[in-house]
Amino acid sequence: MIAALRPVLRRDLDTLERELALYPDDASLWVAVPGQPTAGGNLALHLAGNLRHFIGATLGGTGYERQRELEFNTTGLSREAVIAEVRRAAAEVEATLAGLDPARLTATYPLEIQGLRLGTEVVLLHLATHLAFHLGQVDYHRRAVTGDRTSAGPLALAPLESR
Question: Which domains does the chain have, with CATH numbers?
Fold first, then answer.
């Protein structure tokens, strides 16, 4: 499963980076859109923090300490700063999964999540779908703010071929 999950997460994090680069300027990352509760910049920070916490720190021992409130309350960062956070998350995910003992997948995940003790494999699958869900929200936010219909190529299968 690790070999299958790594290219999916890599593809989606690369797509998130492309989405952020498609915003025309830094300010547009933070524009409020009626009916969408979270701006693209905050969604990207949330995804980076989530993956750094649940994969990097918890499974990889990176020492990252999550500040979830800041993921949703920070505004005004540059696209470059947000992209840098996404890149840090991608590097930590890649390093952690590259060194993860496959036997850990069948073990209970080290943290209780929403009052539940789940298997590590289930948590990793959840994290991948969580990333994909919010990646779609970033795409819709960018399109709503800019009117630009350009695609960042979120569902390309070619990046998965290398597994």
Answer: 2-158 (1.20.120.450)
